[in-house]
Amino acid sequence: MAEQDDHLSTSKHLARVSRAMSMSDEKHDLCMSFILDQMAAKESRSEDVTAEPFFLGVNGVQGIGKTSLVSSIARALGEFPHSIPTVVISIDDFYLSHEDQSRLAADHPNNPLIQHRGQPSTHDLNLATSVLSSLRAGRKSRIPSYDKSAFNGQGDRIPDSEWTMVNESVDRPAKLVILEGWCLGFRSLDPSWLKAYWEKAVRTCVESNDYHGRLGHTRFENVQFLNEALKDYDAITEARKTARADEISDAEDPQYVYDWRLEQEANLRRERGSGMTDEEVVAFVNGCQFAPHEFLLLN
What is the β-pairing status of strands 54-60 and 176-181? Predict the structure, then answer.
């Protein structure tokens, strides 16, 4: 019986992977077409061919394949016949340093949502806006990077001496900047609306045996803390405004996120020798799964 259950579980996982791969190919083609159309329209409206780059924001739940998608797009666009200089950045690369994240967690010991990286308030927004503004101006820019395996999976930003330099050639600056992130484009909500939404989730959590969300298990003051933090994330949108667009990737079932993140972290442990345990991954995803979809209000 156990073997049959294992077989069924494996079959379901393989089916998910197959669907994800098919969706990834489809999204790649759709995104390529969309980007090329948008960039052509931008150039037709601009009198200056050296104008600021086109910014594309890609949003999607954890583990859905955002990084793989944008990396494949950047490779394809960089090759003939397009030859478009492209910079890819993840919002993850702007996470607070391990020291600053530890300080944030210590300052709010009763808020489990910010005891680790991931949520709004755990990114260095000054660094993010500085880098995006520099790219927008076509200046030589250093792109930060974040090591998720550091400190046994807690993570830390790598030294700035190891950051990637872009726009080194004034004759070939980036024409496209792709920024991807799971909370990219989320907007702060009206507190009264959020309170009502939270209360409904709590009631459902208490009254239903089929509640799988996280919001109903979360104290409102902790939710409101993130809601307030989201106001500062508008600065990222402002830093990449004028010529921009946003693409959204979503999961067929939010529960798939646990499988994807567990698989990603297992790969990280094999490759780096360090990373979160399975229990830590579940706690990490729990902290990010509570957010209502209504946070996703793109400007």
Answer: parallel
Residue burial 42-81, b: 16+ Cβ < 10 Å; e: rest: beeeeeeeeebbbbbbbbbbbbbbbbebbebbbebbeeee
* pLDDT tens profile 227-265: 999 999 988 877 766 445 454 454 445 555 566 566 766
CA distances in angstroms from 18 to 11, 22, 67, 73, 259, listed in the order given? 10, 6, 18, 20, 14
Q: With 70 as the cut, is the pLDDT of residue 223 above it?
A: yes
Supply the pTM of this predicted model: 0.76
**How far apart are the C-alpha atoms of 195 and 224, rounded to whole Å?**
8
Write out the two tokens for 173.
Answer: 């600056």
Q: How crowded is residue 220: how many other Cβ atoms within 10 Å of its Cβ?
A: 15
Residue 16 and residue 254 in contact, taking contact as beta carbons nearer than 8 Å: no
What whole-number distance in Å separates Cα of residue 89 and Cα of residue 70? 9
AA letter at 200: K
Tens digits of per-residue pLDDT, 51-68?
789 998 888 766 667 888
- pLDDT for position 28: 79
Question: What are the pLDDT digits (tens) for 177-207?
Answer: 999 988 887 888 889 988 998 898 899 989 9
